[in-house]
Amino acid sequence: MIALLKTRLTLVLAMALPVVLSACGVVPAAMQPGGISAETRAMYAATEYEGIEVPAIPAEYLSEEKKRQLVEYHAPYPAGSIVVDPGGKYLYHLQGDDTAMRYLVAVGAAGHSFSGRATIPVKRDWPSWTPTKNMLKRDPETYGPVASGLPGGLDNPLGARALYLYRNGRDTLYRIHGTPSPWTVGHATSSGCIRLFNQDIIHLGDEVDRGAQVIVLDKSEAGKWTADDGAEEPAA
Fold this sequence. Notes:
- It comes from Salipiger profundus.
- It holds the Pfam family YkuD.
- The protein is about 20% helix and about 30% strand.
- By secondary structure, the protein is an alpha+beta fold.
- β3 (about 45-50) and β4 form a beta hairpin.
- It starts with a helix and ends in a 20-residue tail after the last strand.
């Protein structure tokens, strides 16, 4: 009889304990399947942008580390500048006081061939896209059918938004842009420039001013300025 009472008491306590802990604020924030917080899921939920429905980013391509977030960053440039770290696969939008909003990126072969400084005089929503001559020469079977270009939309490789990089007043043909292929973000890709999740390029585009300075690091400089090493701004 005593053993039966003990068993019942244990079951009651086990059922009541989560309620007690929740009431006391001890239970951590609810996590979605795969360890994704409800906040992160909301950041990358489906959204309408300029009249087009942007699909949600599937959970398998997300994590708490991959989401855009404010981080410590010690790049010696003024607030508002962008630093692209192709080797580290991150883009940093400097906020001042040694912090930056960090975005996960994918960098294609074209993105790895570009480094140094540029500016962003042009921002476009749902931009059109035309393959370059090199693309057509390298892979005519893939790019030949769209040689005349693609209008903006969900299937366009530039995604929901593009920031155009210029140097000395001339278009470099490099872009920071969205992508219809979220599984590529965070990985090296065979083509393209610097791509983000569509939800992230929409967010970044809202925060970046026209004329903003962009610094693209060499691939060998991966992780630069993530720690405070007393770096000084290099000469232009």
